Amino acid sequence: MGQATDRVRAAVRDSRRRLRTYLIVAVQAGLAAALAWLVAREVLGNPDPTFAPAAAVGVIAAALNNRARRTVELVIGVVLGIVVGDLLILALGTGPWQTGVVVFLAISAAVLVRGPGALVTQAGGTAVLVATLTPVSPDLELPRTVNALVGGIVGLLVVLVLAPLNPLRTVRRVADPALDTFADELAASAAALAAGDAGAAERVLHRMRAAEGELDRIGEMVDAADEVVRLSPVRRRHRRALAAYRRGAEHMDRAFRNSRALVRRIGTALRDREPVPADLPVAVTHFGAAVRLLHREFLAAREPTAARARVLTAVRAAGAACRQEIGFSGTIVVSQLRTAANDLLRATGVPADEARRMVRRAAAGQPD
User: 141 to each of 52, 84, 88, 150, 291, how far by Cα in Å?
Assistant: First the structure.
């Protein structure tokens, strides 16, 4: 019962976080749909502006990143669906089986031109609309195409000029809980190691596995924010801070995965009752603190010198532990910590060769 309650609470927390993160997408979609309808109907005088808001929403909702590319794919898909749909309905008429044939051939045409998933989906969806709207709205071929173009342009205007997401705020809403969880679980694993509690280490490992999706969303949000700062004139001032996140996201993900392997070995060492030098939990504690420091320095757009120093402190403590009485799994914990430390140094912008040199010297107890 307790585990079920924890899962429900975790799901509720995750839903709230996702709502806060993606609420701007809902706002953008609503605004884009309304503006696209107004432009198509009131400005251009199209009698049926259905495709304009549909295309506008498609630009925003099809993907959080690569919207410029998605817009081109979406408009091509709409035009392809319109052309195939109109030609076939002209030849076959309308009805349920004709609709099925139209959609089948529209999607087949999109696949033949090696279109990506968004183009294929849009071609099929547009063909459905063409097949169902044609009986009541004939002779709309050109307005439909114009509507698709209007919708795509309005969608881009909304996401880049009228209501662009705040890149740092958006990344922070995802990164704050994810990286805090990362740091907290490392601290919890250090406490389990110090207390000799194998069960606690196992619970930490389960929580880290469950948190993997949160880390994955950081990369997704960084990609979306990166496109905004590159293309939106009102968000370009955030380029420096976001560039640090973009460079560090991949290495941070690797550090998390190596840390999870580290925690798995902590559990093995405790279950096997291996000796645990006092420096080993200290090293894991320092590494968790380095994760938190790196996140704070990224957000402040500062050179992450404090995070680097704390990473090397963790490696020195791990090296000291390795020179004491330590078991097989404990040795692997030290090795995993060094690997994760290298990843974290890379996330701070240190080149690969320099990061390896720094880790080697720190592990040997030498000053950097």
Answer: 13, 11, 13, 14, 56
CA of 306: how far to CAs of 289, 341, 345, in Å?
Answer: 10, 14, 11
Instruction: Give the per-residue pLDDT at 280.
Output: 94
DSSP 335: H
Confirm if 274 and 330 have CB atoms less than 8 A apart: yes
What is the pLDDT at residue 3?
58
And the tokens for 101?
């044939």
If you ran DSSP here, which 8-state letter would residue 158 be given?
A: I
Estimate to the nearest angstrom the gap between the alpha carbon of 8 and the chain centroid: 23
> Which positions of the chain have pLDDT values less than 50?
63, 135-139
Backbone phi, then psi, for 9, in 5-degree steps? -65, -40
pLDDT digits (tens, 9 = 90+) for 59-75: 776 545 555 566 666 66
Q: CA-to-CA distance for 137 and 33, rounded, in angstroms? A: 21
Cα(first)–Cα(last) distance of the chain, in Å? Answer: 51
Domains observed in the chain: 21-162 (no CATH), 167-363 (1.20.58)
Q: How many CB atoms lie within 10 A of CB 10?
A: 13
189, 263 contact by CB (below 8 A): yes
Please tell me what DSSP assigns to residue 164.
-
- Confidence at residue 29, expressed as pLDDT on a 0 to 100 scale: 82
